[in-house]
């Protein structure tokens, strides 16, 4: 079972991701959901639970997704990251490539695209980027 963390400041989106996707069928388990990147880092440092995939929004208060990804690259380079965002701006995609993000999913497609991204990333040994 792959452990997944979901980080999004929008409660409805965060809860929708956790509750509407059939995680067990994907071979995954959501071990935590948080409102910002600072909470994710604190969880990773304190809980000592192995996490395989982090799904994060770009725009969040306190610590946004891009800052979180930079920290993850330094401290937890083996964790795959999927960006979930309402922004289809290519600037974000360029930053994601720089940070070797595993995938980039636009929020309005998350119900279909997020499971595909998780399945793809479970089967990847290297960090990779795919822009749908």
SSE pattern, N- to C-terminal: EHEHEHEHEH
* Structural class based on helices, strands and sheet pairing: alpha/beta
Spatial arrangement of strands, main beta sheet: 2-1-3-4-5
Q: Round the mean pLDDT to the nearest integer and report it.
A: 80
The shape, in one word, is globular
Largest sheet: 5 strands, parallel
**Residue windows where pLDDT falls under 50 for at least 5 positions:** 124-132
In what range is the share of β-strand residues? 15-25%
Helix share of residues? Answer: 40-55%
CATH homologous superfamily designation:
Response regulator
CATH class: Alpha Beta
| CATH architectural arrangement | 3-Layer(aba) Sandwich
Could you give the distance between the termini? 26 Å
User: What is the number of helical segments per DSSP (H or I, 4+ residues)?
Assistant: 5
Evaluate the radius of gyration: 13 Å
CATH topology: Rossmann fold
Annotation keywords:
single chain; about 130 residues; alpha/beta; Rossmann fold; 5-stranded parallel β-sheet; 5 strands; about 40% helix; disordered C terminus
Question: How would you describe what is shown here?
Answer:
By secondary structure, this protein is an alpha/beta fold. It has a single domain, classed as 3-Layer(aba) Sandwich (Rossmann fold). Helix content is 41%, strand content 21%. It is built from 5 helices and 5 strands, in the order βαβαβαβαβα. Strands 2-1-3-4-5 form a 5-stranded parallel sheet, with helices on both faces. Helix 4 links the parallel strand 4 and strand 5. The longest helix has 13 residues. The two termini are 26 Å apart. The C terminus is likely disordered.
């Amino acid at each position: 079972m792959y452990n997944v963390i979901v980080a999004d400041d929008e409660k409805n989106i965060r809860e929708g991701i956790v509750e509407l996707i059939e995680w067990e069928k994907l071979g995954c388990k959501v071990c935590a959901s948080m409102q910002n990147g600072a909470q994710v880092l604190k969880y990773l440092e304190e809980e000592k639970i192995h996490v395989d995939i982090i799904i994060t929004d770009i725009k969040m208060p306190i610590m946004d997704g891009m800052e979180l990804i930079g920290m993850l690259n330094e401290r937890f380079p083996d964790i795959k990251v999927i960006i979930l965002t309402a922004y289809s701006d290519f600037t974000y995609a360029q930053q994601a490539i720089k940070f070797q993000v595993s995938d980039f999913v636009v929020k309005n497609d998350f119900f279909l695209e997020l499971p595909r991204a998780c399945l793809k990333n479970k089967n990847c040994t290297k960090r990779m980027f795919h822009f749908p």
